[in-house]
Each structure stands twice: as structure tokens, then as C-alpha cells.
Amino acid sequence: MNVYARPDVVAMTAEELAHAVGATKAQILAYENGHRVPDPVRVRALARALKIHPRRLMKEEKRDSWTVADFRRASGLRAQDVVARLGVSPKNYRRFETEGIVPTRSPRFIDDVAAALGMPRRLIEIAIDRTPAVRQRRTRAFELIVAMAERYVPKPGPWRGPAPDDPALIELAAAYGRPVQRIRRVLTYELGELRQSHVRAQRERVIADYDTDQERQVGARHALSRWNSVYERELTRLPQRLENFHRTCQPSDVWQLLVDLYNVDATVRSDAGAWAVTSLLSKEPSVLPPNLVEQHVIEDVEVCRLSAAGANHVVAFAGLYAALYLGVRRPIRPAVRPSTKARGAGSDTFALPNRAERLVIPQPIMEIMRASAAKPKTTVFTRLSPSYDLAVGANTLSVVVVDTLSPLDD
Q1: Helical residues (DSSP H) of 120-270, grouped into ranges
Q2: pTM for the complete prediction?
Q3: One-character DSSP codes across 277-306
Q4: pLDDT in tens, 70-125
């Protein structure tokens, strides 16, 4: 970096570089010859002196194998620097770097780490998967899940899931850093899905073995092979699926907000799509995870909608959330959602004056507003922003421009 100076950089001697970073010539030569590795503070100083990003001082050819700790060092940061920026305990951050375990009560943790390191979240997630402890956990988790599937899935009688004191369950909970009861609920759902495939396969096996119609026997054999393939495929996917869920799992109140956005189709779409008014959805916009929810401002109205990752998250993990948070609202499948007139271009949507964006009110909030305006000729006003109010009638929605004239102007 120093000898082959860039057009805008003048090469320095080892003594000059040592003086610039507060080191000795011997230390600089040791760094150059690979005999010593500078600590993150020295890396930042070297990068400033050489007018490059700290990452350029790393072995870029090995970037495909970097873990989170490597990316942190490539940013010239110590673990204690990141801990101070995130306001988390050193123990939790060390566990994240070494084991890939996201703190239970920090649903935005990966986003915060990505921001602290100045990197896209996607690269952080890839780096987590490269962590040796995470790879070992996936391997061991597969062995434990297979053992529990063999023990409980074929078991006759009502489905109850794994026993609370099952050693494999307890070991799996410890590996994911989550309470045993939480893991048991999640696995009860996942193994229950496998059980459905197993039951269907057994039905086809009976037909294939005992039916007197040869054509039906042939069809049953094909169906049996298909259901067995489904079973094996879903069983193989489970460890990574559980990894992804525990990294991105949201609290019950945030999950309900995601479901409400999904149910009114406030998602990223190929067409313009719809936006939900953030202030009506949540009084704490900071709880909305940035990787799952896009936030935007139309005029001075703050709005939000599910990102593509957010919509996929809702669809992929709806069953797990239902098992984890009993009694929560569930996403409605597109095929059985209310008609477009009822939820989209009809009475529950509106637009700001001279704007094309369609704004929508999530159903639970809309029901509260309609209840307040249930009486004939009653209109309830809700503040959208300093410039706009929303007028809600029994069957109407309209935007009202707030009168900003001062008494002197009047």
C-alpha cells in the first residue's frame, strides 16, 4: 500500500510511517513482513496514514472465509468499541461473535452490528454462518432433531411434541441459547409438520401394499416416494431454518405489526403498492426492524410497509410465531383475504392531496376508528402529521389539510 503509492498519495519511509502512527520502525517492518499483526487501533492509524479503508489492510483474497470477528477487525474496531456503540454487555457480544447467538431481547441486534461495522446486513448474516461454532451447531442440531423425529413423529396417539425433559431437547436449547420451553414449542410445530408428511406417506404405503387395483397401487408408490422426499427435505432444512428464526425472531407486539402490514398488503410490490401510516401503526417507530420494514416520508406523513424480506419472514415463520405466541393474530393468505374493494381501493384506503401513493389503515386500527364513528353523521379526526388530519366517518375516509394560519393572519 505504501511502496506502490496511488496517484494522490506520496510514499513514505518506514520511519515516516512509524512516526505517523506512533510506532517504531521495527514494528512497521514486522507488520510489513507478516511477523506481527497490528491491533485494531493500530490498523485504524495505519489506514489513516496510508489514506485507505482499514479493510484494505486485510487479506482480501480470504474474504470469502471471513467471520464477524474478521469483519470487525477489518473495520479497525476492537470488540469493546462495538460493545460501547451498541450498549450491550461484553458477554452477549462475545457470544454473538464466537457462537452466532443473537441476544433474545435485541431483535434489531444484527442491524445494529451491521451499522456499527459500516456493512450491509446481508454480509453479516453470511459471516455468521461461517463461524466454526455455528457450523458445528448445525451439524449437532441435525443429529438431535433426527433423533427426536424418529422418537416422536411415528408415535401413535394425539400429537404432544417432544417431552419437556428430553435430553436432546435440553441440549438443543442450550446450543441455541434459548429456554427449553421456547425450543419445545417451536419443535412441536416443526415436528408436527413432519408428522403430517409421515402420516400421508403411511397412507400411500397401505394402498401400495394392499389395494387390489394395480393402477392405484402404482400411483400410491409414486405418492409414497414423493412424501418421503418431502419428509427428508424438510428434515434436512430444519437446522438452518431454526438458525434463521432465532436470529430474526421479533417480540409478540412487533410480530403483530408485521402481520397487520401483511394483511392490508402494505408490502413492496411490482406496482406502486400501499403504505401504512407509521403513527397509526405504532407509537414507537424505532421498534420496526429495518430489514423487515421500509420507512418513508410522503409530504410530512411518515409511512411504512413490509420489505421483500419482511413479507418472506411473515410467510415463512407464521406457524412458528403462532406456536410461540399463543393467541396472536395470524397472517391471512392472499387467496382468502377480503376483496380489493373492502381492503384496497375502497373505503379503507386514501391518498394525500395531489399524491398518487395509496395509504392504507391496518384492520385492527380501522375497527377502533369505525367504532368511534359509528353514530350517523359522526366524524372522528386523527392527526397524521403537522399538515394533515384523517377524517373518519362511518363509511368514509378523507384527508383534511390542517389550518396553519396564525391568529394574526386570521
Answers
A1: 121-130, 132-152, 167-176, 180-210, 214-248, 252-263
A2: 0.83
A3: EHHHH-S-GGGS-TTTEEEEEETTEEEEEE
A4: 999 888 899 999 999 999 999 999 999 999 999 988 888 999 999 999 989 999 99
